[in-house]
Amino acid sequence: MKRGPTGRYETTAPGGETVKAFVPFPLPPKPLPRLDGDLQVALERAHLALGRLDSVSTLLPDTALFLYAYVRKEAVLSSQIEGTQSSLSDLLLFELDELPGVPLDDVVEVSNYVAALDHGLARIREGFPLSNRLIREIHGVLLAKGRGSEKEPGEFRRSQNWIGGSRPGNAAFVPPPPGGVQEAMSALERFLHDDTLRIPAVVRAGLAHVQFETIHPFLDGNGRVGRLLITLLLCHSGVLREPLLYLSLYLKQHRATYYDLLAAVRKDGDWEAWLDFFLEGVRQTAEGATSTAQRLAALFGEDRARVVPRGRLAGSALRVHDALKSRPVTTVKELRSRTSLSFPAASAAVNLLVDLGIARELTGRRRNRVFAYDRYLAVLNEGTDAPLAPGS
Known about the structure:
It contains 15 helices and five strands. It is mainly alpha-helical. The strands form two sheets. A three-stranded antiparallel β-sheet has the order 3-5-4. It has a two-stranded antiparallel ribbon with strand order 1-2. The protein has two domains: 7-291, Fido-like domain (Fic-like fold, Orthogonal Bundle); 308-380, Orthogonal Bundle (Arc Repressor Mutant, subunit A). α1 (37-54) runs parallel beside α11 (271-307) and α2 (63-81) crosses α4.
């Protein structure tokens, strides 16, 4: 449905150059999107996929194992959309010991994303409301160090920003002037908590994401925070018990369509076309995450079965295998810490896993060796276009 523009233009002159900035009308859209026909089918499919994903904890002996690596894959993908070159392997190596050879600026940015998500989820689990205060806190963690740390972390912008182009005058899109950011974000916060609106949580998340990206309330990091907002909303509403849904891969694969649909909402008010795309992304992403969990559960079981018959080393090797599930890139020193095995026992156990093709040594050195759980990482790396290379 084409409702017409979903905001108004306000003439402003940042840097002395006259431009028209877009100020969105508060949500919800008027009239509300009609959840019937094809859109109703898309919503039902998304809900079904989310329900299956929410039960993923029954597929893995420890959901935290999956979350640890899956959150990091999302951090890599979300940051890659913003132009970083860091891979999942880079991040895991950085977290291991800030090893040389890792692109520091990029990997710090990805590491910040993990910390920002962890912070937001911890606050929600404490009972803190999903609010502008929490969004600013998350942004503060995201830009705490490294690239972007000089761009007012944790604060709504006090100057004009723009999307595309080298300046506001030739930009593809100019968000609201800085004086309108607080009001627009306050209206968004009220929408998030308006219980009088009979809108499914996943639809509310889709509407809120567009509104946040249109307001673009920060000088940097808006895309990453906007994508985090989807997951946090679904967890806050109780649709998901764990943060297992991340749309970055879907948005990366359909980037042109994504930007076209955001523009169509602003220009024509075509919320239905956006929601159809968004709900399909939720379905595909949820089904992908469920499939990944099933494959990992099968992989862990297969590898465990290969270790069990290996005589006196089997007990130690199984403990090391469990440690590799928790941290798929690691050292003998860390394995000792996680398994309470002696250095000789941990070394012998990981060597057995290498012999069985379960683990791989990366450095080629005799000392300070680094091991990777290759098949586990291969599953997680799908979509990041960044396999773990020898000697990395």
